């Protein structure tokens, strides 16, 4: 299983930076203004500190109060310009960062909508959500705080080194030695903490995945009173994360005290040596005063630079994970045949403009398919569904029933063979049009946050209120909907937690009914309802299925007795075909399954 948390440092930093630069290019003008404002802000701070020299020397040389006021006012103006520039770049950076992550978030979600189902089979939902939360938030924090800070501290460190060299090159040799010592320790500590950061990120992914899985299955947990074991499992994973975090933070947290300690020692040495130089006349008091302030301030940008660099690396790592998803191939769609609806029905419109009536004729010819190359799920499947027929697919779990319906609308691409839809290869039909010709009622219902009316209308967004209510009536959902406090305007939340399983299934069937498709796929559509409700649904479904091709996947064989053809699958092959009476007369696999189920009933 692929996880988003695999490394603290991006594997291909050059590529990641290049991709991010493409997004930043949309904000090029604002970023240039940010860099200019940051440069002015830092220059103001450096110039203000340098002004200590002329102010002190002027006061010592002539003691003029007017001269002192002029120096102080000039310094105040310099700092005011720097403060104004700081305010400007922070405001600009807020706008740049929000627009930057807006574009990435938009592209990521839009691209996810184009990916094949095989991608979602490989990725856990929690891992995908972490892209929108952890990784996007890390990028946003880095853009808001680290981007301008790294530029600022880089200029400040460089400017400080230049100015202290101008003020006193001899003392600067001591400072340079201290800087070398600081960076040497930072590098050593960074290498030691990197391994722990890798373990920490992996442990976060493990813990997040465990929590999501346990919370999602909380009902099952409580049914089997598995709370204590779950807590023990959480504690083990939490301890691994804590141990990795302690190791990472122990080294990372030691950087600031080490740098500060070295800077204090450096400050003491420079102050002592500088004092001796003043006494010997090798430098003036103003230069020493300005110099000492620079030395005192030198540790701060180094600490910040180190911290912000780590944040940027984390952001680049998150960005790389996002770009890896953006680089996933979208569903291939080279189809040119489109679907057109008219008063009399539906037509396939070919590229040359000719029309083929949509009748619902589906034919598989020697189809081979596997989710992975080394494991076949379907092995040489050939079948046909004539227009208006109800085709039932039965067999044990894993026989390939649901896979067949998934291949018809190209959720997955076949390895070999052909699938024809009204004589047209499904690969020649545009994906959106192909899928518009189907409606699904799945065993696992999914309702969206919104009203009941909106959930039914999800099947066809342009459906009128009358269409929605008619569809609900067909599914025999109208009566229970009208008994709800707000009727069709009742709010559905948390995937329909405020409704029973049977009611959710009825809404799912109504959603398929409002789509009014030429072909229906019913994947154990009545599995979650009681016998009385099942009877009501089947009566409504008879109306819905009239004149349509219908694929029914069923485990309860009593629900498919009226099917025109029943296909019995085993290990990816069709081993029997016929109607109920024919298959019972054969006394083969279907007969065994049906009689066994009949006895259970």
Strand content: 5-15%
Name the CATH superfamily classification of the domain at 12-167. ABC transporter type 1, transmembrane domain
Rg to the nearest angstrom?
Answer: 35 Å
Mean pLDDT figure: 83
Number of helix segments? 19
Tell me the distance between the termini.
40 Å
Broad structural category: alpha/beta
Oligomer: single chain
Q: Mind explaining what this structure looks like?
A:
With 601 residues, the chain is an alpha/beta fold. Among the domains are: 12-167, Up-down Bundle (ABC transporter transmembrane region fold); 169-282; 447-516, Rossmann fold. The protein has 19 helices and 15 strands. It has helices at 13-24, 28-50, 52-62, 65-112, 117-122, 125-167, 169-216, 218-223, 227-279, 285-326, 401-408, 431-436, 452-457, 465-474, 478-483, 501-515, 531-545, 580-586, 589-600, and strands at residues 338-342, 345-349, 355-357, 362-369, 378-385, 390-395, 416-421, 424-425, 438-441, 450-451, 491-492, 519-523, 549-553, 565-570, 573-578. The chain has a six-stranded mixed sheet, with helices on both faces. It has a four-stranded antiparallel sheet with strand order 5-4-7-8, with helices on one face. The longest helix has 53 residues, at 227-279. Residues 1-7 have low confidence and may be disordered.
Looking at this protein, list some descriptive labels.
6-stranded mixed sheet; 4-stranded antiparallel sheet; Rossmann fold; 12% strand; 601 residues; ABC transporter transmembrane region fold; elongated
Set out the fold topology.
Blueprint: H1 13-24, H2 28-50, H3 52-62, H4 65-112, H5 117-122, H6 125-167, H7 169-216, H8 218-223, H9 227-279, H10 285-326, E1 338-342, E2 345-349, E3 355-357, E4 362-369, E5 378-385, E6 390-395, H11 401-408, E7 416-421, E8 424-425, H12 431-436, E9 438-441, E10 450-451, H13 452-457, H14 465-474, H15 478-483, E11 491-492, H16 501-515, E12 519-523, H17 531-545, E13 549-553, E14 565-570, E15 573-578, H18 580-586, H19 589-600
Parallel strand pairs: 6-13, 6-14, 9-12, 12-13
Antiparallel strand pairs: 1-2, 2-3, 4-5, 4-7, 7-8, 10-11, 14-15
């Amino acid at each position: 299983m692929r996880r988003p948390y695999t490394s603290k440092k991006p594997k291909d930093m050059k590529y990641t930076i290049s991709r991010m630069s493409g997004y930043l290019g949309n904000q090029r003008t604002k970023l240039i203004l940010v860099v200019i404002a940051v440069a002015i802000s830092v220059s103001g701070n450096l110039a203000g500190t340098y002004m200590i020299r002329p102010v002190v020397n002027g006061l010592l040389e002539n003691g003029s109060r007017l001269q002192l006021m002029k120096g102080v006012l000039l310094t105040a103006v310099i700092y005011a310009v720097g403060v104004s520039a700081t305010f400007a770049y922070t405001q600009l950076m807020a706008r740049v960062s929000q627009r930057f992550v807006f574009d990435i978030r938009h592209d990521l979600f839009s691209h996810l909508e184009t990916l094949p189902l095989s991608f979602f089979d490989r990725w856990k939902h929690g891992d995908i959500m972490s892209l929108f939360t952890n990784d996007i938030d890390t990028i946003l924090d880095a853009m808001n705080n680290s981007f301008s800070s790294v530029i600022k501290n880089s200029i400040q460190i460089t400017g400080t080194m230049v100015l202290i060299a101008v003020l006193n090159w001899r003392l600067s040799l001591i400072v340079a030695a201290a800087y070398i010592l600081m960076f040497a320790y930072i590098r050593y500590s960074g290498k030691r903490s990197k391994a722990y950061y890798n373990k920490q990120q992996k442990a976060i992914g493990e813990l997040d995945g465990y929590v999501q899985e346990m919370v999602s299955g909380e009902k099952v947990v409580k049914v089997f009173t598995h709370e204590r074991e779950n807590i023990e499992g959480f504690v083990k994973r939490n301890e691994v994360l804590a141990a990795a975090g302690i190791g990472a933070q122990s080294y990372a947290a030691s950087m600031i005290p080490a740098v500060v300690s070295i800077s204090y020692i450096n400050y003491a040495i420079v102050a002592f040596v500088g004092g001796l130089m003043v006494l010997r006349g090798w430098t003036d008091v103003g230069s020493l005063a300005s110099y000492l302030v620079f030395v005192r301030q030198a540790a701060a940008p180094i600490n910040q630079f180190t911290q912000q660099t780590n944040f940027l690396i984390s952001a680049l790592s998150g960005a790389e994970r996002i770009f890896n998803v953006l680089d996933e191939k979208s569903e291939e769609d080279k189809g040119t045949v489109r679907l057109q609806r008219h008063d009399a029905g539906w037509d396939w419109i070919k590229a040359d403009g000719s029309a083929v009536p949509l009748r619902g004729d589906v034919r598989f010819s020697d189809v081979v398919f596997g989710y992975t190359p080394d494991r076949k799920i379907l092995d040489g499947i050939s079948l046909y569904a004539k227009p208006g027929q109800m085709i039932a697919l039965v067999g044990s779990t894993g026989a390939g029933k649901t896979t067949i319906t998934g291949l018809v609308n190209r959720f997955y691409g076949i390895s070999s063979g052909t699938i024809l839809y009204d004589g047209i290869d499904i690969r020649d039909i545009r994906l959106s049009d192909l899928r518009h010709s189907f409606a699904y009622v799945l065993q696992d219902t999914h309702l969206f946050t919104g009203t009941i009316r909106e959930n039914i209308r999800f099947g066809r967004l342009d459906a009128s209120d009358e269409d929605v209510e008619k569809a609900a009536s067909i599914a025999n959902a109208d009566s229970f909907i009208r008994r709800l406090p707000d009727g069709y305007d009742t709010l559905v939340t948390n995937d329909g937690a405020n409704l029973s399983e049977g009611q959710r299934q009825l809404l799912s069937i109504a959603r398929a009914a409002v789509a009014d498709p030429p072909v229906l796929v019913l994947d154990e559509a009545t599995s979650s309802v009681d016998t009385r409700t099942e009877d009501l649904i089947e009566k409504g479904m008879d109306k819905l299925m009239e004149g349509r091709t219908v694929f029914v996947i069923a485990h309860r064989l009593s629900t498919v007795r009226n099917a025109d053809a029943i296909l019995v699958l085993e290990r990816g092959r069709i081993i029997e075909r016929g109607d109920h009476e024919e298959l019972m007369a054969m006394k083969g696999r279907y007969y065994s399954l049906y009689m066994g189920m009949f006895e259970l009933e």
